[in-house]
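Before the break, one more example. Copy the sequence into your notebook; we will annotate it together after we see the structure.
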Amino acid sequence: MTRTMDDLFWLGCWILAHAVAFAIALAIDFTIVANSNMVSLILPAGVISGCCSGSVEAWLLRGRCRRPGWLLAITILATPLGIIWTLAVFCILFRLLGEGIQSLLLQVIILGLCVGMVVGIFQAPFLRCRLSYALGWIAIAALSRSIGWVAGVSLFNGYGLANEAVLAALSGALGGAIYGTITGRYLQQAIPLRQQTASNPKQGTIKHQP
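Here is what the structure looks like once it is written out:
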């Protein structure tokens, strides 16, 4: 398999894995929301989302990051912290803007940016890339999560299904696919596949064309 095909295969796996992970997390989170209040949602929703996304990222980045097991643990920790940070930001914005922050899509954008930023900050030290790319990862993680969640919420609000948990899963799959596409392409620029191959002797080496 050529390096280009390796890149495409890895990117496809990254996108598919995040689509599935986000679908599972959102379906479970939606079920929790439907049966509890928002305060009790924070911790379980964050942990579930962190487990789903962190698992696939740790597995697919096992040759591209330092200590993938720690990447999983730090993602599980960072996701609920990101949600808590978002609530703090909302409190500040509500005091400053009042009803100007009532738009659902605006709230989702802020939620995606805040959670993605916190998760990106925690994950960046574990990625095998230069400092500039690590800092860029924080911005990409925030923007891609925000864009993906906005697309997912738009789908959720735009269509009605008898089973809302299924619709939540479809919305999560769309958001995860968008997140996976953006972050996957960025990671391929920040951490070339040859580093993964070089770190895993069983895969051999890649011969570079002159």
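Residues 61 and 68 are 7 Å apart (CA to CA). Residues 3-196 form one domain. Try to locate both features in your own notes.
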